[in-house]
Specification:
Elements (H helix, E strand, L loop, with lengths): L19 E6 L11 E2 L5 E2 L1 H11 L4 E5 L5 E3 L2 H17 L20 E2 L41 E3 L4 H14 L4 E5 L11 H8 L10 E5 L5 H5 L7 H13 L8 E4 L4 H13 L12 H15 L3 H14 L10 H13 L3 H6 L5 H16 L30 E5 L5 H14 L8 E5 H4 L6 H13 L3 E5 L10 H14 L5 E6 L1 H8 L5 H4 L2 E5 L4 H14 L4 E3 L1 H14 L9 H21 L8 E3 L19 H9 L5 H15 L9 E6 L5 H14 L8 E5 L8 H12 L3 E5 L8 H15 L1 H6 L1 E6 L1 H8 L3 H6 L5 E4 L4 H14 L7 E2 L8 H13 L10 H24 L6 H5 L3 H4 L1 E2 L6 H4 L9 H9 L9 H11 L17 E5 L6 H14 L8 E4 L1 H4 L7 H12 L3 E5 L15 H14 L5 E6 L1 H10 L1 H6 L2 E4 L5 H14 L2 E3 L1 H16 L14 H17 L5 E4 L2 E6 L6 H4 L12 H6 ...
Parallel strand pairs: 1-9, 1-10, 4-8, 8-9, 11-14, 11-15, 12-13, 13-14, 16-17, 18-21, 18-22, 19-20, 20-21, 23-24, 25-28, 25-29, 26-27, 27-28, 30-32, 33-36, 33-37, 34-35, 35-36, 38-51
Antiparallel strand pairs: 2-3, 4-5, 5-7, 6-7, 31-32, 39-40, 39-42, 40-41, 41-44, 42-43, 43-44, 45-46, 45-48, 46-47, 47-50, 48-49, 49-50
Helix pairs in contact: 2-3, 3-4, 7-8, 8-10, 9-10, 15-16, 19-20, 19-21, 22-24, 25-26, 30-31, 30-32, 31-36, 40-41, 44-45, 44-46, 55-56, 57-58, 57-59, 58-60
Length: 1739
């Protein structure tokens, strides 16, 4: 409690001059009564009753309570009588201001408002006190509003059911005018917040207005944190709270304080409570009287230590008695009464608890000295004189002992600061300096609030809780790290001054930060003069702690004899090995970790948990087991440990060389500073430990221990202290900072570096301490660039690279990890050694493949430890469970499983992710490993590479490769198509260079554009350097360097910068790093042209070609063998022909032939065959040379492959009959028969396959006939194979070298070049034509190859005219074959054929029944419409195929609707097509072919220029006249849309009249979906009207692809003004000047008065014409476009004709670019009898 009073009460007359008191603490919440209280009268009551009793004793004549239920009540007769008296007097004085008349209950009646309840209860001796009278009905009146009473609490009188204003009128009258001294208690303020009306605030403010008496108000806050009090200042009484109550809560002057905080009961109160339970009549408890005094003191101490209340004591007594019926309680029972927790705190003597502390001898001596001084001065703990907690605690007689209560504890984590703080609290209690001695513990971070004032409130709260005990703040210096931390310090100092002697504050933290913290406040150091320093535990003490925590472990832990014997040596290396070192926490965690490891091993061995846990060395965490390893006892042992390291060839060479330098005095005996850089898990930490032993044995260091710390541990604001501590603990040994590169990534890290440099430059430290910084390769380079001093102190000669482990080395590490555990139950591998272990050998095989694609942060040894080996163990456990688990074996039976089965790792335990790389189990693993290690085993068709490398392996001199003295570089280029072995060849080059020690690592890193280019300016060069630095000493393969070249002058990407930096790095590392540049031929030539210096640096250029069928066969057979596949006899006989057909056709890729994957296609084929074999119901196998192989049959070839699995020499002889079956093509069939007759009649050997020119539109069967042509020529004996190699002009343009490849592939077959006319559209294509001419004149080609050119008729004529040599060969009557467009009826016949064989068509995949007549008629209508368009791009048969695909999807959608998604569709219905299945996009065609179509006759359009020969608009007047005429033809379009039954204006657009009959062209998106469309037309010279609104019909179809729609004005007038239209053959060009007329923002500028709006016009130029394949042409404009301009005409300034329709704008954020579609789409889609323009082929 805070407020001061005299020895009997806090409510003294002096204190009552400020009449507002706050009571908090053990009061109770809104749903409970809180703690119990017991007075000297032996009544156990609640807090309210105790307060009422206490206030009545202090002279208050009435104590009234008011609570949430609008109830005024009291606990004694006198208070009730005064309440009754004052209320009636007030009512009489005010003329009945109160609502009821109150009479005395003695009359037997209470009128309407008051009731008397039970006021007496059984006393402790069983006697009865006087009862209150009953009501008129003779029944008692219990008070429903009263809180539940304590065991012996009197009931109360109450005034219930009052309105809030009535209650406050009564209370205000009493407080102002009563002649009695009254105390008003607001029973629960947290529930009264809604009841404090303005009248209530007024009454409370005037509580001291009565000059004759000193009334008070007590605010009962039923909660034990003062924060709740302060935050309860709700709106109705903010001002009152802030000015009246808050000063009594927040004031720092103790004299002004008015807060009463109720704590734990003292010894006298507990003694009274013991008397109460001993004397009560019902269920008495027997307590030996002579033990009452000692027992009450002991229980009071337990309550104080645990901050418990009286209720807790009574409940514990009840539990004790229930468990010991009839037992007489004596003093020795106190331990069981308070429970184990309470007994622990107060059971043992304080001297014993201090003596049990491990280490800290100085601290223990000082604490015991303090205790002895206090006892010697007879500072006794004073027994209380009063039981009430409302009475001030007695101040003990204190003798000066030269010790302040407040102190600070310094030391690292786990050194026992919290334990010592608790002991200090009990010490002060035992010494009589504090009444309770409990400890309130908080971390500094928990005190800080996030708003102003909140931190001070939190400090207040903690101080209130700590009164009578100790407030312990750990990491106190953290208060200076926050903007509100100083607020906490200031408030803490103020409270310590205000409540000096009432509580103690103990601050704790690291020493140096604590010293700085003491200076953060002027008075802070003065208030904490005493410091106890707790040092880190020594290795011997850590050993004691481990044994201690094991001994007290609840699971019964003991250490094995072996563990005890090695524990001392273990602690010598382990203690202080990490930062921050946790001291006792480390020991406790170690015991827990060992227990977990112990149970894990038991589960792995199939054993159940044991009753007693015996921990041995094998139970140590794996990462700590190295501390058990014996350290080197001599220099020779240290050298031997270095030599025995796995891998790390250059590391071992460096360390042994360094040892010799020191040993022979070549270098002074200075420890030195070192950089260890490399990937994670490459042995940096292990090497650091060995280095410590080496330098120790060389007498350079006096300690061999290595202090290991992670850089992340330093990345805090406390880094100065942490760094100093780390260096201090590492002195005379090694400080190893792992992942040091992280220090360069943040401001804090760079501050650490700047603080570290002076340390390593200190001569004294540098002379006796070794510093090692470790991290990743590139990142460590960046670290050294942060500070020049750091780079100077870690010179290049002290930087050691740690290479990644090879697969063999990783397997040796795996073996070592398994061998480390020598216990009988340890895991083992099959075989007696590495070479005989199938598990280890196959692991090496799997790791060899895995390392080819490993991530740059691959964990190396850590990966084996944390991933590979644990997953193998998991597989072993799963295998055992599959074998034995199903048998239901018990624990003992499981133990009987042979250890060889239970603990041995076999190939079956290879982790799942690696199984595919571990090789087939039926193939000898040594054979597989030899193949994997072979440099040239699978290099096919690369004679140039193999010859070159074999010469090097044979030792032949070549100054460009192996002879170091003559090596110019290790830079190579490889060009070729995909899948030809470029990447694999890079690996072969790397391996060869490494095997001959020309590069240090056999590791290839593949990088491309995304790996080298950065996203921001200035970052690309650094990124490239980082990539090269990571690959230094190995091989860097750059894929597609040409992709980083600048595309044009506007290309501002970072590719050129990346290439420039790459070339610079290649020059720098040309003799220590291999560079392999991989690209296609064209890309590599472009790269050389852009970077001409590179070619001079290249040691060798390799050029690869596509694999031939024979080479593909070689690869197929090799990979089939690897996959354990064998082909049956039928497939074997057809395999060569299959490869000829498949490779010749490039797998049917068609236009995508450039993506043919060569060897990659073989991989896909093998995977397909494996999957097919697995899916077979009956698996066929065979054994060849002892190997079990899967047999592949013809049926396992999927559809994509099966079509090629036929004999190339057994083509059907009736190919002509198949030709006759084709629909239409009368002329084609006649021409082919004529050609076949000619060749058949020629003398043997004289006939040639011929050159042909197929002329026809797409989909007319040209490709089909070309394939049949090959069969006809083969059947006639003219061609040996007759296969067809098909290429399109686009393919040849995109891949120019592909033409020569295609000619080569087509030998003995047909070369079919489709859409050949497109070769004229580009320079590359024209170059192909020039290549074609000499080829068709080559007799060897003509004798073995049939060449067919195909394309559109008119365009092909232009092509043949381009080159006379070409025309002379192809422009003959025999060569030209015309393919006519199909008629509508022929398309219908084609549809029938496709539907019938739909399951054979990849795109369709299902047979369709298209016999429904209504559907057929609708399809015919669609075909008629398509044919009527005369569009050479319509597709003919191709269109029919696509049409059927859409029909199929519509059919499936209908079936889902009719039968449900999961419903069963009846047989015959699933493929039956009806008219309902016509695709929706054709429905309008069918409908509108019967109605008015959206087609306009050519004769209705005006295409004439403004004047013959064009107009001269140089004179402004001429242009103004033309613009005036234009505006008459441009109209505003107003559209409406229905919303329910209402129609609303949906928006406006623009349009223009194209025919005198009233046809208007606008945008489709303007009119689509609208219920009504109107246009406003200028009427010209008509009298009386300038314009008129007309309704329009929207003609179908609209063409959304170009966003155009044709609408027709409803009017009898047929002479509307029209625009002039540019012809379809006069395209828009970039830079063309235009004039735009439109009704932009019509609704906005006219305030929706569209009658008044005028057209807006502006001029500009066409900035760009964009032609994108598959999309309509877009003409981009300078200037702006706005809503409402959509559909506006774009006029040419050159001739005044319309060149396009404004579509809209491309928007990107705040920027937009308007564009229009050219008018040629209008000609294409809306004009009949017009030669349409195929805009997709433009440009």
């Amino acid at each position: 409690m805070r407020v001061r009073g005299n020895e009997r009460t806090l409510f003294t007359p002096e204190n009552c001059l400020n009449p507002h008191f706050v009571v908090t603490g053990r009061v109770g919440g809104s749903t409970d009564t809180g703690d119990y209280f017991c007075d000297e009268s032996l009544h156990v009551i609640g807090a309210e009753q105790e307060l009422a009793r206490h206030l009545r004793e202090q002279g208050f004549e009435a104590v009234l309570f008011f609570n949430f239920g609008n109830s005024i009540y009291c606990y004694d007769r006198t208070s009730w009588q005064i309440l009754n008296e004052d209320v009636n007097a007030s009512a009489a004085a005010t003329g009945g201001a109160t609502s009821a008349t109150v009479t005395a209950p003695a009359t037997g009646t209470v009128t309407g408002t008051y009731a008397a309840g039970r006021i007496s209860a059984l006393g402790p001796s069983g006697g009865r006190r006087r009862r209150r009278r009953q009501d008129a009905q003779g029944g008692e009146q219990p008070d429903a509003d009263a809180p539940a009473a304590a065991p012996d609490a009197p009931a109360h009188y109450s005034r219930r059911g009052l309105y809030i204003d009535q209650a406050w009128t009564i209370l205000g009258t009493i407080l102002r005018y009563s002649t009695h001294r009254v105390a008003l208690v607001l029973a629960n303020m947290l529930s009264l917040e809604q009841l404090l009306t303005p009248s209530a605030i007024e009454a409370l403010s005037e509580v001291d207005a009565n000059p004759y008496v000193h009334n008070i108000v007590v605010y009962f806050f039923k909660g034990n944190t003062l924060t709740n009090i302060i935050r309860s200042s709700w709106n109705n009484w903010n001002t009152f709270f802030g000015t009246i109550i808050a000063p009594g809560i927040e004031g720092t002057d103790e004299e002004d304080n008015r807060v009463v905080s109720l704590g734990s009961p003292n010894a006298l109160e507990i003694r009274c409570a013991l008397q109460y339970v001993r004397l009560r009549q019902n269920c008495p408890i027997t307590i030996r009287p002579q033990d009452m005094h000692r027992l009450s003191e002991r229980l009071a101490r337990a309550c104080a230590a645990q901050n418990r209340g009286l209720k807790y004591v009574l409940l514990r007594l009840e539990h004790f008695v229930a468990g010991h019926p009839g037992h007489e309680i004596v003093y020795d029972d106190w331990r069981e009464i308070v429970g184990a927790e309470g007994a622990t705190l107060v059971d043992r003597r304080i001297e014993d608890q201090i003596g049990d502390l491990v280490g800290m001898e100085e601290v223990k001596t000082r604490l015991l000295q303090f205790l002895n001084d206090a006892r010697g001065a007879r500072v006794a703990h004073v027994y209380p004189m009063h039981a009430s907690r409302f009475t001030p605690a007695q101040r003990p007689r204190r003798h000066a002992v030269g010790h302040e209560l407040n102190c600070r504890l310094t030391g690292g984590p786990g050194t026992g600061k919290t334990t010592v703080a608790r002991l200090i609290g009990r010490l002060y209690y035992e010494a009589g300096l504090l009444p309770q001695g409990h400890t309130i513990e908080r971390n500094a971070g928990e005190i800080i609030s996030d708003h102003i004032g909140g931190t001070a409130q939190n400090v207040h709260n903690l101080v209130y809780q700590a009164l009578g005990g100790v407030l312990f703040i750990d990491e106190a210096y953290a208060l200076t790290d926050n903007q509100f931390g100083q607020e906490a310090i200031n408030q803490l100092v103020a409270d310590m001054s205000a409540y000096s002697g009432q509580f103690a504050v103990v601050l704790a933290g690291y020493k140096d930060p604590m010293d700085e913290f003491m200076h953060a406040n002027d008075g802070l150091a003065r208030r904490f003069p005493i410091e106890y320093h707790l040092p880190d535990y020594t290795p011997d003490q850590m050993r004691d702690l481990i044994e201690h925590f094991a001994a007290i472990d609840p699971d019964g832990v003991t250490l094995s004899d072996q563990m005890r014997a090695s524990l001392g040596e273990f602690c010598q290396g382990w203690t202080g090995s990490t930062y921050p070192w946790g001291n006792a926490g480390e020991a406790q965690n170690l015991v827990s970790q060992m227990k977990r490891q112990h149970h894990l091993l038991l589960r792995q061995h199939g054993e159940s948990a044991r009753d007693k846990i015996v921990l041995g060395p094998e139970d140590l965490p794996p990462e700590l087991r190295h501390f058990l390893e014996p350290r080197s006892r001599s220099l020779e042992e240290a050298r031997q440990r270095i030599t025995s390291l796995i891998g790390l060839k250059n590391v071992k060479r460096y360390l042994l060389g360094r040892a010799n330098e020191i040993l022979y005095g070549i270098d002074g005996k200075v420890p030195g500073n070192y950089i260890f850089y490399g990937s994670p898990g490459t042995g940096k930490t292990v090497t650091a430990r060995i280095m410590g032993e080496l330098l120790y044995q060389l007498h350079v260091l006096t300690r061999w221990q290595v202090r290991e710390i992670k850089a992340s541990d330093l990345l805090t604001q406390e880094f100065p202290q942490r760094l100093r501590d780390a260096v201090r603990s590492a002195r005379h040994g090694v400080l190893f900072i792992d992942e040091a590169h992280q220090l360069a990534d943040s401001d804090v890290g760079r501050q650490v570096i700047r603080a570290f440099v002076p340390i390593v430059e200190d001569p004294e430290i540098r002379a006796d301490t070794c510093f090692i910084l470790a991290g990743y390769t590139v990142e460590m380079k960046h670290l050294l660039e942060v500070d020049s001093g750091l780079e100077r102190r870690f010179p290049q000669s002290r930087r050691i690279r740690f290479d990644d482990y090879t697969a063999h080395e990783l397997t040796l590490i795996l073996q070592q990890m398994i061998d480390q555990d020598r216990s009988p139950d340890a895991m083992r591998y099959d075989g007696d050694s590495f070479e005989t272990s199938e598990y280890l050998l196959r692991s090496e095989l799997a790791l060899t493949e895995y390392l080819k694609t490993r991530h740059k942060d691959f964990g190396n040894g850590g990966f084996i430890r944390d991933v590979y080996l644990p997953e193998s163990r998991t597989k072993l456990a799963a295998r055992l469970d599959a074998t034995y688990g199903s048998r239901g074996l018990g624990a003992e039976e499981l133990k009987s499983i042979p250890a060889a089965d239970r603990l041995t790792l076999t190939p079956a335990d290879i982790p799942d992710a690696f199984v595919a790389w571990a090789g087939p189990l039926n193939i000898d693993v040594h054979e597989l490993l030899e193949s994997a290690r072979s440099s040239f085993g699978t290099l096919v068709g690369k004679e140039e590479v193999t010859t070159y490398l074999r010469r090097r392996c044979d030792g032949a001199g070549d100054n460009g490769f192996l002879d170091v003295s003559g090596v110019s570089s290790f830079i190579y280029t490889i060009v070729g198509p995909p899948g030809t072995g470029k990447s694999f060849s890079a690996r072969i080059i790397s391996r060869t260079l490494h095997e001959h020690d020309l590069i240090e690592r056999d590791e290839v890193t593949y990088v491309g554009k995304g790996d080298l280019e950065a996203g921001y300016v200035g970052q690309t060069a650094a990124k490239v350097r980082e990539v090269v630095d990571r690959s230094a000493g190995a091989t860097l393969s750059v894929v597609a360097p040409s992709s980083m070249l600048a595309r044009d002058a506007q290309d501002h990407t970072f590719g050129p910068e990346a290439l420039g930096q790459l070339v610079s790095c290649m020059s720098e590392h040309r003799i220590d790093t291999a560079f392999v540049l991989i690209d296609d031929l064209e890309g590599m030539e472009a790269f050389f042209r852009a970077m001409p210096t590179v070619r001079s640096m290249v040691a060798r250029e390799f050029r690869f070609e596509d694999f031939t069928p024979a080479q593909m066969g070689q690869i197929l057979r090799a990979k089939a063998s690897e996959a354990s596949l064998a082909f049956d006899e039928e497939v074997s006989d057809l395999l060569d022909d299959f490869l000829i057909n498949w490779v010749g056709d490039r797998g049917g890729l068609g236009e995508m032939t450039a993506s043919w994957g060569n060897g990659l296609e073989i991989d896909r084929l093998i995977s397909s065959l494996r999957e097919a074999w697995d899916n077979e119901e009956r698996h066929r196998t065979t054994t060849v040379a002892g190997r079990l192989l899967r047999v592949v049959t013809r049926g396992m070839f999927g559809r994509d492959y099966a079509r090629y699995l036929l004999s190339a020499h057994s083509v059907s002889a009736d190919a002509m009959a198949e030709l006759d079956k084709l629909t239409g093509m009368t002329g084609v069939k006649r021409a082919v028969r004529a050609a076949e007759r000619r060749m058949r009649r020629m003398p043997a050997g004289a006939a040639m396959p011929g050159l042909y020119c197929f002329l026809g539109n797409p989909g007319t069967g040209k490709t089909t006939v070309a394939r049949l042509m090959g069969q006809v020529l083969r059947a006639a004996g003219i061609l040996e194979q007759g296969h067809v190699v098909a290429r399109t002009a686009r393919q040849l343009v995109y891949n120019p070298q592909g033409f020569a490849e295609a000619v080569k592939l087509a030998r003995n077959g047909v070369l079919f070049i489709d859409e050949a006319h497109q070769l004229l559209n580009s320079d590359v294509g024209r170059h192909v034509i020039k290549e074609l001419v000499p080829i068709v004149e080559d007799v060897d080609v003509l004798r073995n190859t049939c060449i067919i050119l195909a394309g559109y008729p008119q365009e092909m004529e232009i092509l043949l005219d381009f080159d006379q040599g070409l025309a002379s060969r192809f422009d003959t009557d025999q060569a030209i074959i015309n393919f006519e467009d199909y008629s509508a009826s022929e398309l219908l016949e084609i549809m029938d054929g496709m539907a019938a064989r739909g399951d054979k068509l990849e795109q369709l995949g299902i047979v369709l029944d298209a016999s429904d007549e209504e559907f057929r008629q609708a399809a015919l209508t669609v075909f008629e419409h398509t044919v009527s368009q005369h569009d050479q791009t319509s597709g003919n048969a191709r269109f029919v195929r696509n049409f059927l695909v859409e029909v199929r999807e519509a059919l499936f959608a209908r079936l889902d609707e009719e039968y449900g998604i999961e419903g069963e569709v009846p047989a015959g219905v699933a493929s039956k097509v009806t008219a309902r299945d016509l695709p929706s996009r054709y429905a309008d065609i069918v409908r509108h072919r019967k109605a008015q179509p959206a087609v306009i006759d050519l004769s209705m359009l005006d295409t004439s220029p403004v004047a013959p020969g064009g107009a001269d608009f140089s004179e402004e007047g001429a242009w103004r006249d033309e613009c005036s005429r234009m505006r008459e033809s441009v109209i505003i379009v107003r559209v409406y849309q229905k919303a329910g039954t209402q129609e609303r204006l949906a928006g406006t657009g623009s349009g223009f009249i194209v025919s005198h009959a009233g046809h208007v062209l606008t945008c489709a998106h303007v009119v689509k979906g609208m219920s009504r469309v109107e246009v406003r037309v200028a009427l010209g010279s008509m009298v009386g009207e300038a314009f008129r609104w007309f309704e329009c019909d929207v003609l179908e179809p609209m063409h959304e692809e170009c966003d155009m729609a044709l609408i027709k004005i409803r009017a009898s007038r047929a002479n509307f003004p029209t625009v002039r239209l540019r012809r379809w053959d006069d395209p828009v060009v970039k830079g063309e000047a235009f004039h735009l007329v439109g009704y932009a923002l019509a609704s906005s500028v006219s305030n929706e008065n569209l009658d008044a709006v005028a057209a807006l016009e502006h001029d500009g130029t066409v900035s760009s014409v964009q032609v994108i394949d598959g999309e309509p042409t877009k003409c981009y404009m300078d200037g702006n476009a706005y809503p409402g301009d959509s559909g506006a005409p774009v006029f040419s300034r050159r001739d005044g004709r319309t060149i396009g329709v404004l579509r809209g704008a491309v928007v990107d954020g705040e920027h937009s670019i308007p564009y229009f579609h050219p008018i040629e789409y209008f000609w294409q889609y809306f004009v009949s009898l017009c030669v349409s323009v195929d805009t997709r082929e433009r440009g």
